[in-house]
Amino acid sequence: MTLKSLTYTSLARLDLTADDLEAIHRTARDVNALEGVTGLLIFNGTHFLQIIEGSPAAIDGLVERLRQDRRHSGLEVRDEREVSERSFPDWSMELVRVSASFFEAKETVSDRLPETISDPVRDRVIRMTEAISGTVSF
Ligand SMILES: Cc1cc2nc3c(=O)[nH]c(=O)nc-3n(C[C@H](O)[C@H](O)[C@H](O)COP(=O)(O)O)c2cc1C
């Protein structure tokens, strides 16, 4: 089966509440479990970074829904590729809340990533975490 992995960043709605975040996470886990989508959602208080992986149809459908979702804006696809295996096979959607400071965020993310993850994927997650931290322009 062909698998697709897509990484995007977006800007959370300014008045997003903790309840909104919980609701997003709950929907993501429930729907993804049904659709065979797995991945990681990082939130640093202002921005989202999400990696989603699954069948091309499931990923394309999800991105369409994400683009319509008013709880965030400015969705930018940062990476999209065919992969031979999942990087997050056990996570229907893992939410990782991180500090706005890149140095703290990097530590939190590094601690939470699965040990089995490949170096290129680990590097991409860290690089993208830096991008949403605002320490580099993007
Ligand atoms: C940052 C963010 C991440 C999301 N992640 C997912 C996800 O992984 N899977 C999912 O089904 N919905 C996710 N959603 C919710 C979708 O945008 C959408 O509301 C949901 O899939 C239900 O779609 P529907 O209202 O068209 O039925 C996310 C929303 C936001 C704002």
Automatic annotation (TrEMBL):
SUPFAM superfamilies: Acylphosphatase/BLUF domain-like (SSF54975). It comes from the Bacteria. Residues 3-94 form the BLUF domain. Pfam families: BLUF (PF04940). InterPro entries: Acylphosphatase-like_dom_sf, BLUF_domain. This is BLUF domain-containing protein.
